[in-house]
Amino acid sequence: MTQYTVRLKDGWKFTDGTPVTAESFTKAWSYVANAKNAQKCSSFFSMIKGYDELQDPDKLQGDEQLSGLNVVDDKTFTVDLNSPDSIFPVKVGYIAFAPLPESFYKDPKAFGENPVGNGMYKFTHWDHNSQIELAKNADYKGVQKVANDGVTFKIYTSADSAYSDVQGGNLDVTGTIPASAIKTFEKDSSVEAYNKAGSVIQAFTIPSDYEHWKVDTEEGHLRRLALSMAIEREEIVEKVLGGTGTVATDFSSPAIPGYADNLKNSENLKYNPAKAKELWKKADAISKYDGKLVFSYDADKGFKPVFEAIVNSANNVLGEVGLKATANPVPTFQEFRNSIDERSMKGAFRTGWTPDYPSIEDYLYQIYDSAAADGKGANDGDYRNADVDALFTKAMGITNQDERNKVYQDAEVILLDELPSIPLYYSNAVGVAAAGVKGFTMDWQNQPIFNELSKS
């Protein structure tokens, strides 16, 4: 199917009081797709007709519209795709496809400081680097129920501090468990703990064109395989994570249809120190280098023990043949992401993925398709492979889920060989709530369901 008709329900309006119309969607989608506006979610719209014509920023003003979007009336618009995309009805539930009010286009920067939406909550105040306050949106017309009058998001640079505040009743919920509590939080009587299988995959990426690690060279291929086989994932999951994860066998997640644990080349994710050394020596025979490799991670998310363990495991295996791995903690997630977005991050860096929508396509196309490279999506390593792209396109045209997932798995076989990123483990959904908090649970994206929370 290459055309969809979208019809809006009556009564919806933004928190500034203006109505949500068909144009609220078509203008927003076109703005994000337009390369002049340099939006991170641009690649989500690459399947819509007219996307390619909006990818040369030097020839654009920023207000050009996707030709595949056509407004029929205030409550109706059509979407024409370049080719069939069986996942499209699922994709549009992601936040990248949300509508925008007219006030956004008048001053995007000011809008960022005082955002307007049409969801369960409305923005009230932002104390930068401290907290963001939201109030219940009385005009919300959706099906989800809100059990509280609002939510305040407090900003922490230390997972330990947030956990201590939950223990003391000064914070209601956190979805990040510090390393110091990972083995004990489920037995902590001062909190309500949550620990169930989740959908998040943790990996690290080495840019595809990084010297000595280039994906399209034999040397780079050998070094990536060697490094992957030098990491003892089982030990990290058990000893560092305290069992709150599962060793990765592919690029998706056990929580998503299409996951597989026995694909061809999945042995490249298994600990094999002898093979790792052999492959490293073969790479050195092609081109010798000093062996220095920095692993960067966001220190405010509790990843220090994980990346120290990765570095230690890699050095224990490959140190004697030349690898000199070191860990580089970046103080905040924002600084970390800015460096990645600016392509100034050197060496390896953490690249966890929380799915945007429940499909294996989201784990693959959005991270490894060429359309998502160069800052247009989540392809942070700027990986490109025409065969992988072709398989993604083929899969999108298949309506039968099992048949579609098989094609995505064919793409994974290539990814497991080339390793544009190196999967580590799947994170459980973990968190804690303070005493007196009711309705604490977590969703399929490993996030607390804030609208269901209340306090006695």
TrEMBL record:
Domain Solute-binding protein family: 2-372
InterPro entries found in the cross-reference section: Peptide/Ni-bd (IPR030678), SBP_5 (IPR039424), SBP_5_dom (IPR000914)
Any Gene Ontology CC annotation: ATP-binding cassette (ABC) transporter complex
Any matching Pfam family: SBP_bac_5
Top-level taxon of origin: Bacteria
Signal peptide: none
Gene Ontology molecular function, alphabetical: peptide transmembrane transporter activity
SUPFAM superfamilies, A to Z: Periplasmic binding protein-like II
GO biological process: peptide transport
Descriptive protein name: Dipeptide ABC transporter, solute-binding protein
Organism: Bifidobacterium magnum
Organism lineage string: Bacteria, Bacillati, Actinomycetota, Actinomycetes, Bifidobacteriales
